[in-house]
Amino acid sequence: MPFFVVSLAFASTSAGQFSATPAAVTDAVGLGADLGGLAIFSYTASTMGAYSSVFGSYWSGGVITSAANSTVYGNVTSPLAATLGDHGHITGDLVSGDVLTIGNTSNVQGSLMASNALSVGENGYVLGDVLAGGVVSISATATVHGDVNAPAFPVLGAGSVVDGTIGEAPVDPQLTANLTAQNVAGGIRIATTQAALAVLTTTTTLAATQVTDTRFYAGVYQADSWTTTAGITITLDFENQSNTSFVFNFRDIFSTGANTKFVIANEGSNNNVIWNAYGAGGYIQMGAGTEIMGPILATTYIEVGASSIVAAMDNLCGGVYSATSYVHGGASSQIGGVGCSCFEAVPEASVTMILSLGLVLVCSHRRRESVDLELVNDERQK
């Protein structure tokens, strides 16, 4: 099985390439097809909690940890160490620029690559290949269906199986450096997109705190900081209009109280909702049980509370993007869109989803079905 390494072309874009008003429709690229196709971009270390799910690929510029019983429906990539917890599941490839560990009874449907040591836990399963720049350890009763390549013969536990060949093919010595460079470019790309969103003409200024249920209509919303109280429902009404968007710009903080629900009403086609904490210290913090749709961008960190959902809508796979800091998903949280596939790339020339504000925030991976929060909840029950 050929080894797949995610290659992200995070080209820089000047803010001047973007429209300053939602009315002007252009072909300007926002996050771009590769970066926009990630469910998570964390500039520094990132953790997804136990029983969490990521629907799409997962990138971290620092140490990446996907905890026990977590699932990633895509690829996982980091220039530093990477760990998949016990009983974890990844449908794509796992690439680390340092040490890579997958836990006991974990399952990887793609391949594993590490610049340093690599270990597969007891009863672990790897459908693809294993390639490491250091010692490879395959624990008792673990299975690798593909080839294993490392500088020395792997350490094989009792009852472990390697179906392919064992050899000494080298890891690219520039792997860590290349991934680090891509991470820097990705952070710049996010910051540029944030700056472009921030200069859109404001149609509504929000009060600092939202304390009751309310209904908003498409437009550009602005606040220095915005907090919702626990348990309220905020309806985003598209009034059956197509090619319209909500953009929420925050100079500093966006914080939701526990069990805040954002609900879509009267959706047309090619509608989108974008959250942007663009100030120098801008961060986003979601209380437990929050339900919201992405994409979500912050200058610094993003925390998705336990049992929270960041869902997708229309042509977007959803996603959370930190330009300079970390992304953390709590236990049983879900990020991304059910039905996103990291294996079916959409040719860039075919991307026609142009937002009314002139930004293309596309997923490079075809979504096989329309997804809303109810479908995500259905997936959680499986």
Overview of the molecule:
The N terminus and C terminus are likely disordered. The chain is mainly beta and 382 residues long. The strands form 5 sheets. Strands 22-19-16-13-10-7-4-1-38-35-32-29-26-23 form a 14-stranded parallel β-sheet. Strands 20-17-14-11-8-5-2-39-36-33-30-27-24 form a 13-stranded parallel β-sheet, with no helix packed on it. Strands 21-18-15-12-9-6-3-40-37-34 form a 10-stranded parallel β-sheet, covered by helices on one side. The chain is built from 3 helices and 42 strands. The protein has a domain of 238 residues.
Summarize the structure.
By secondary structure, this protein is mainly beta. It has three helices and 42 strands. The protein has a domain at 21-62 and 186-381.
Overall average residue pLDDT:
82
- Please summarize the sheet with the most strands: 14 strands, parallel
The number of distinct helices, counting runs of at least 4 residues, comes to 3
C-alpha geometry: elongated
Radius of gyration, in angstroms, nearest whole number: 21 Å
Spatial strand arrangement across the major sheet: 22-19-16-13-10-7-4-1-38-35-32-29-26-23
**How many strand units?**
42
How widely separated are the two ends? 30 Å
Flag low-confidence runs: 1-29, 341-382
In percent terms, what proportion of residues is strand?
35-45%
Helix content: under 10%
Structural class: mainly beta
Properties at a glance:
13-stranded parallel sheet, 10% helix, 14-stranded parallel sheet, 3 helices, single chain, mainly beta, disordered N terminus, disordered C terminus, 382 residues
